[in-house]
User: Which sequence fits this backbone?
């Protein structure tokens, strides 16, 4: 915009006396600012990339060196000491105190189903017959109570009947 | 087979071991009130046991008398005295067996247990009362057919119940107490 056609006071005082025009000055300023920002960004990107590359390659190099050296060194050390001798000196009691013995025992009992093994080995035929007798009685119970409940128009079945029916469905 | 670490998270030791001591098919009915049939069979087993006992004792006594007396006379009508002795023996037997663990022979065979409403053991007094009512008014058991809660007249009067309990007859040992006792005695 021109000063002659502008009624308002000029915004920048120096623009009147300046040998270069305001527009030219502004364009130069913005161009310089863009260049500076770009240069800074580029420098930052370059630095970060360099740092990253250096770190990673150092890690890789260090790891590969360690991978090569450590086994050799450990082997050298291990071959010179008797681990069994060291372990033999360890006091095992505090370690055993930390081991959950009962829970391990429960786990093993549960996993090998020890109760059923005991039942099968000690109970035998008589136990199976007894179980069958008991269940037949229970089924008769259910039959009877079912009829009675129907006679009395009971909406809800008795607890035993219900549970046993559920139990049988899952067996 | 779950790994130990997983098993450990879900572990309830005592309950688990107790429940796994039951046969698998009995776990769903454990602790529920037993119905009429199971209980009447158990009662007949007990009655049969006592009848055998009383008749056996009487037979033994008569045999002894036959051997020892010179002029053996056939016993007079002994039905009524034997019946009274039988009732009395039944009362004593049920009192004894229900008070020491809630199970007579019939109960053991049928997998039943007599207990209080709260699942506790019947005391000697309560056991004697229940036994007396069962002997005197055996027909009270018939109410278990009709009762919504499978309770006989005796159960309703005394606040007891008969539940399924298939657990083996193992004595309960307080392991913690035994271990503490062992420790305070210096591992003896």
Assistant:
């Amino acid at each position: 915009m021109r000063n002659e056609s502008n009624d308002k006071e000029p915004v920048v005082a120096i623009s009147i006396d300046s040998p270069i025009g305001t527009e030219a000055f502004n364009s130069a300023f913005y161009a310089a600012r863009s260049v500076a920002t770009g240069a800074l960004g580029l420098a930052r990107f370059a630095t970060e990339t360099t740092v990253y590359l250096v770190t990673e390659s150092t890690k890789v190099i260090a790891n590969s060196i360690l991978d090569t050296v450590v086994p050799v060194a450990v082997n050298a050390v291990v071959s010179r000491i008797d681990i069994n001798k060291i372990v033999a000196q360890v006091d095992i009691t505090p370690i055993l105190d930390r081991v959950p013995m009962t829970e391990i025992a429960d786990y093993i009992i549960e996993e090998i189903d020890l109760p059923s093994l005991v039942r099968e080995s000690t109970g035998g035929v008589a136990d199976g017959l007894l179980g069958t007798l008991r269940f037949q009685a229970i089924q008769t119970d259910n039959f009877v109570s079912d009829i009675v409940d129907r006679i009395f128009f009971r909406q809800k079945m008795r607890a035993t009947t219900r549970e046993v029916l559920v139990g049988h469905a899952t067996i | 087979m779950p790994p130990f670490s997983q098993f450990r998270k879900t572990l309830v030791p005592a309950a688990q071991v107790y429940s796994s001591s039951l046969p698998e098919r009995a776990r769903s009915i454990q602790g529920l009130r037993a119905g009429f049939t199971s209980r009447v069979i158990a009662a007949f087993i007990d009655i049969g046991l006592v009848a055998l006992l009383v008749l056996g004792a009487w037979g033994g006594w008569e045999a002894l008398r036959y051997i020892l007396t010179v002029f053996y006379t056939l016993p007079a009508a002994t039905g009524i005295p034997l019946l009274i002795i039988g009732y009395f023996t039944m009362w004593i037997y049920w009192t004894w067996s229900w008070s020491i663990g809630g199970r007579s022979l019939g109960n053991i065979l049928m997998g039943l247990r007599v207990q209080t409403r709260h699942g506790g053991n019947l005391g000697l007094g309560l056991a004697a009362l229940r036994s007396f009512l069962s002997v005197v008014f055996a027909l009270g058991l018939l109410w278990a057919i009709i009762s919504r809660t499978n309770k006989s007249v005796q159960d309703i009067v005394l606040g007891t119940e008969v539940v399924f309990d298939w657990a083996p007859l193992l004595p309960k040992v307080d392991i913690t107490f035994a271990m503490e006792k062992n420790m305070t005695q210096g591992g003896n």
Remarks:
- Residues 35-184 of chain B form one domain.
